Amino acid sequence: MSSIQVLKPHAKDLGGGFVVRRLLPSGQRQAVGPFIFFDHFGPVIVRPSDNHDVRPHPHIGLATLTYLFEGVILHRDNLGYVQRIEPGAINWMTAGRGIVHSERRPPEEKDVTYTNHGLQLWLALPEDQQEVPAIFAHTPANAIPELSQGAAKVRVLVGEAFGAKSPVATLSPTLYLDVDLPPNSQWTVPMLAQEQAIYAVQGDLLHAGEPWEAHSMVLHTEALSVTSGPKGTRFVVLGGAPLGRRFIWWNFVSTSKERIEQAGADWEAGTATAGMAQVPGETERIPLPAR
């Protein structure tokens, strides 16, 4: 039997007036497949006087996935990677037993006004792989498969769909598609994952003639027919195999509360052997928040 669940965003201020729309986790649902965190930021104009930098901070037990529609972010981590993140690329960071990274405006953009717009997602790791060594992997935009499927243009960001397979490696079955639907067009979103959701990034999206509330996430259990609005619609499809409940506190995810407590202590101590060493070239860090 078909069922639909609608998750509404809540605004979250990340500091400096930088507000995002957060869909996961929510009071209604913690995760969709392995996805346990979903932030949509922008479009936001970044002026030379703005400071949206995210100072060095740690993660454990998860993977982060950054995808831009517009703009640029400079990633640095304590594995030594320095990567300029640009639209269309996939930046996947497996924290595993511990990693520290920063996200900043590139120095060459310090006097430039530009627009930042993108999605930042976290994925839980399988229980037996929560303590894997940290990894950072950048997949450029031109390596992502893109195809036409009916009226839609589809980029297969992660996973497999319509005979195309993303080169992005994952630790559990995962689906992530970027779909562009021209104005007033109909498209049927097939079920491609055990758990699956649709999120409209830009433009109106209608189902059965009724528009969905802007920036809502719609979970569905069978193929779903959607129609774009008069300006067209860009949306993502995400999902995968569920991995069970997780404890989430600050930037830490685990099946164990004790492991999260230990990660906090390691961050305060700057324990290099726990993956909490400083990022090369950085002098700042975000302190552990009070619980």
UniProtKB/TrEMBL annotation:
Does the keyword section mention Metal-binding? Answer: yes
Q: Which residues bind Fe cation?
A: H57, H59, H101, E103
Needed cofactors, names only, are:
Fe cation
Q: Care to name a GO molecular-function term for this sequence? A: metal ion binding
Q: Give every Pirin C-terminal domain span.
A: 176-271
Textual note on the cofactor:
Binds 1 Fe cation per subunit.
> Where do the Pirin N-terminal domain residues begin and end?
19-123
What keywords were assigned to this record?
A: Iron, Metal-binding
Q: Which family does it belong to?
A: Belongs to the pirin family.
Question: What is the protein named?
Answer: Pirin family protein
Q: Which organism is it from?
A: Rhodoferax aquaticus
